[in-house]
Amino acid sequence: MEQIKNHKERKSRISKARATLYTANSSEILLKIMTMKSTFEVWNFLKDSMKKMKGLKERKC
Questions:
Q1: CA distance 16 to 24
Q2: Spatial contact of 18 and 42, defined as CB atoms under 8 Å apart
Q3: What is the DSSP letter of 24?
Q4: pLDDT > 70? residue 30
Q5: Predicted confidence band of residue 25 (pLDDT cuts 50, 70, 90)
Q6: How many structural domains does the chain have?
Q7: What pLDDT, on a 0 to 100 scale, did the predictor assign at position 22?
Q8: Domain that holds residue 51
Q9: What is the mean pLDDT of the chain?
Q10: In sequence order, what are the residues at sequence separation of 6 or more whose Cβ sits closer than 8 angstroms to the Cβ of residue 33?
């Protein structure tokens, strides 16, 4: 029973994390991340895109 409960809680946390990532981004990025299957993929995509944005900002200055 404990394993079932832990599994349900973990699934719930993952769903909440994905929902938060979806609401925190623009519609252009949202379309890209909605096709990704895992939260890990979404997180890595966002991390990479932020690195690119920082690089562009530094070059402009």
A1: 12
A2: yes
A3: T
A4: yes
A5: low
A6: 1
A7: 67
A8: 2-60
A9: 78
A10: 21, 22, 25, 42, 45, 46
